[in-house]
Amino acid sequence: MYQSFEMATSPETGAARLRDLRAELSTRGLDGFLIPRADAHQGENVAPRDERLSWLTGFTGSAGTCAVLPDDAGVFIDGRYTLQVRGQIDLQHFTPVGWTGQEVGPWIVQHLPTGTIGFDPWLHTPREIDDLRATLSPRVELRALDDNPLDCVWADQPAAPADPIVPHGLDVAGELSADKRRRLAAELTTRAASAAVLSLPDSIAWLLNIRGSDIARTPVALLFAVLHVDGTVDLFGAKSRTDDTLRDHLGPDVRLHDMDVFADHLRALQGTVALDHSSAPVWIADRLNETVDFEPVRLPKARKNAAEIEGSRAAHRRDAVAMVEFLRWLDENGPSGTLTEIAIAQQLESYRRATNQLRDISFETISGSGPNGAIVHYRVNEASDRTLSPGELMLVDSGGQYADGTTDITRTVAVGPVDPDAARAFTLVLRGMIAISQLRWPAGLGGAHIDALARAPLWSAGMDYAHGTGHGVGAYLGVHEGPQSLSRRSTVPFEPGNILSNEPGYYREGAFGIRIENLLVVEQPSDIAGGDLPMLSFETLTLVPIDRRLIIPHLLSAVELQWLDQYHKRVCAEIGALVPPATREWLNAACAPLSED
Q: Which Gene Ontology molecular-function terms are recorded (predicted)?
């Protein structure tokens, strides 16, 4: 199994670890210290060595920060984790604080009128520190440290990962690394930059057509790179991890170095250097002479080429077979009242493994039954595991990593009798999902312009959800990829080739959670009969039935009903021939036209 259900942390350990950290801070003359859920690359997933926030507090979410002061310790979390955090931290020693991005500074000022706060410059970005300084009082000093005090009290901290790095073939990459480097080097020239320092592992993986396994769920190696204006690259952290095959793949224009020479190379860079101030660590910025805030890889990487799109289609068809087999199994066994959340997640992974092409799951499966489904990013473990009962909803959010693509899908299914309130909420969520799926829009618009369309049916009923409607997805890379996203805060325009999730939801605390998620790819603009402008549109990549039992047909418009029936018709046409006869019979019933009911 890729996924483990052991409890990685416990609230009971927090008090002693907090005491040890405060003692270490005192010896250094510090009044506080910041512990972000981050590594030197600012990725969503981190290696076990970098799980400092989880080790200290018990909180296992993918985003958050702890500010440790002499008498207080605030754990800052966003709306996804409001319920989760209270079940994971020791509330006598840590205080959960709602976080939208600007609350850390004012909270520190409130609890520490004067003093010195330390931070690890590898774990924070220049923009983050600049924003924090702007909200602190002049009597509170922020100090970059040479080492991390928490690492000094974490006795059994795991070693840094150093797994092999492997080539990513041209058949799935769709473009030679040399061509990518030449194209991006030309962009540096237009911005009068002599080089770009890259710290995002997925950017480096895409640029050099390589993959790795340094962190779970995302196939990247934790490296740093400098792209020069002549298209050559200096790659740091890879020298001792390559073989002849990889060196031949990279070619002579990619020079390999150990990390111990990285600082000297940074100081030696001449002219203006491109650096992303929102993702690169302060440690790098402090060693460069002059920078321009720019990252050349993220936008081109997000525009999937023809090979990457075709690979994603193939991965989704393969993943759909596993999902359909799983949903049939859940239908047959769920009402028995014997299935646990862990057993359900294990069974789903076994169906994905049966494809014989699964490289990893793309994130920890969210397997939430009944009230646990209302915890947006719920991660079942041996302590929280519960048995699915008839009359409940089962929310399963999962995905796979395949060599040709990354998948992410959520299905919420009824187990036994259907609660009318849940069916009404499900239908409203479905209407929002359909609104995005069939949207046509002019070039230049981003998530902030269309996110409300997914929420409008819920808003009309006085309901909403506390997360974005969707995120970018990589091509056998991160399941969460920027810069584009389908959220009210993102103004990055959608472009052809972008792959995004479409996942509105509704969560009733203590009762149930609902989310329906498909992945979409932005298609080339096309004309509309009688229209004036070519419009962009989405192609749906995910091909898995949506639970008909939870849909109230009269709440759907004729257009929405037509979309749903056409979607299910396509699912049957593309997936039916790929599953065994017994499963095909179940699939045909699950995809029967709702308009005929």
A: metal ion binding; metalloaminopeptidase activity
